[in-house]
Amino acid sequence: MKTYTDIVGNKLNALLEKTYDAEKGFAKAAEHVDETPLKNYFKRKSQERLTFGHELKRELSAYGQEIDKGGSFTGQAHRTWMDIKSAFTTNNEDAMLEEAIRGEKAAVEEYQDVLSETDLPLSTKTILESQKYTIESGLNKIKSLEDIRS
To answer: Partner of 125 at 20 to 30 A CA spacing, among 9, 69, 116, 132?
Structure first.
């Protein structure tokens, strides 16, 4: 059975922190949109990230890693930016959608970075690949919502 190196443990904790941030960000976006399909989409994505966080915490614990708590400063700044956009943008739903797309693209890159580690145990790799696939599928869906609304 492979174990985590400090590098892998740190990368997974960083991913967990960003998962917390995404969960809060999607919840915040859902609060700021009126369009029901978009609101429901953001709520589902927030719940999805909550589930991802639990999966990552279980995996980190299974390999004896310390689990970081809370979100990042960058995530808080991102949510604050969404609030500002919501308050000052006349078409804030489009701004929220654009911000969500940007965040999802960044998440896919972050997952790919962690997946590029050669020392990942199979269970961790499987979880990360599944979560990345879910994010990519959601990104495709959110892109199609944007196309429908244009």
So the answer is: 69
C-alpha distances (whole Å) from 12 to each of 43, 111, 115 are: 24, 9, 10
Question: Tokens 């979880």 appear where?
Answer: 127
Mean pLDDT of 69-94: 55
- The yes-or-no verdict on residue 106 having pLDDT over 50 is yes
pLDDT for the residue numbered 21: 86
The answer to whether the beta carbons of residues 12 and 61 sit under 8 Å apart is: no
Residue of higher predicted confidence among 62 and 144? 62
Sign of CA pseudo-dihedral 21, 27, 31, 32: positive
Query: In one letter, which amino acid is 88?
Result: F
Mean pLDDT of 58-70: 84
Q: Which residues contact 115 (CB under 8 A, 6 or more apart)?
A: 125, 128, 129, 132
Pairwise CA distance, residues 107 & 20, whole Å = 12
Cα four-point dihedral sign 47, 52, 55, 57: negative
pLDDT at 46 over 90: yes
